[in-house]
Amino acid sequence: MRIMCEEQRHGWQMAYLLCTYFGEQGVREAAKLLERNAQDGTRILGSFNAPIDHWLDFFCFTHFIDRDGKYQLKMLSTSSFKPLAASMGPMLKEESFHLGTGANGLRRIVKQGVIPCELLQKYLNKWISTGLDLFGTDDSTSAQWAYVYGVKGRYDERESDIEADREHLNEASRDLYFQELREEMRRISSARKEGEPELFIPSDKFNRGIGNYAGKNYTIRGEKFEGTDQEYQDYLISVLPTDEDEDKLMNEYMKQEWIQYREWKGKK
């Protein structure tokens, strides 16, 4: 509930900026922002069209997709438009809680060992490719001009003393995100029970909808798929959650103690 309330507040915060600083056009854009509904399935980016049907989806979303949010917010925190930059601090603090919720949830699932890692891997494959797409197209001119005009900086703008490669800004941010995911997954996977396969982050070439690898047939290991398009669709069925997987997850594994119990530390 806290995460949903905070995400809604982020939307209201951006609507406030639009209404306060951008006149009638800002009011119209704010109205569209607040009226948009992810359940309509009309969002440009796939992450926000994908249904979240259970806690495993929720933990994957908060761990992988909200992590992209952290990157976007930090890049905007260096904006030359002060009201926008000043809005990022509170949002980043809230986003850190969302990331922690996702990471802790996945770790507790892995440690409990009821849901097999082989099945968990399919959900990682499902969500991570959509998270990579959130950084936009490679060689983006929009990202380049946003940087030139000071609307948006790099993720490590304050720390880096390297001159920005303006033609590959999205790629640079995506690479940092991808490396961070791999480090996080190594920690989460280390909690798995003996005999369970290691969880891993699929290749950044796999199942992409945006960028240089969009629509191209690559395996989760990053190898070029040599079969036909139909054979590739069959391959996707083997590495992404199916209806049968969903049914087994919810009606078999989640009927058990599927997540490690966490003692409540709040006030009684």
Query: What structural class do you assign from the helix and strand content?
Result: mainly alpha
| Strand residue content | under 5%
Shape field: globular
CATH class of the domain at 52-200: Mainly Alpha
Architecture of the domain at 52-200 in CATH? Up-down Bundle
Count of helix runs: 9
Rg over C-alpha atoms, rounded to the nearest angstrom: 20 Å
Order of helix and strand elements from N to C terminus: HHHHHHHHH
Number of strands: 0
Short summary:
It is built from 9 helices and no strands. The chain is an all-alpha fold and 268 residues long. The longest helix has 31 residues, at 82-112.
What does this structure look like?
There is one protein chain. The protein is mostly helical. Among the domains are: 32 residues; 149 residues, Ferritin (Up-down Bundle), CATH 1.20.1260.10. 57% of the residues lie in helices and 0% in strands. The longest helix is centred in the middle third of the chain and has 31 residues. It is globular and about 55 Å long.
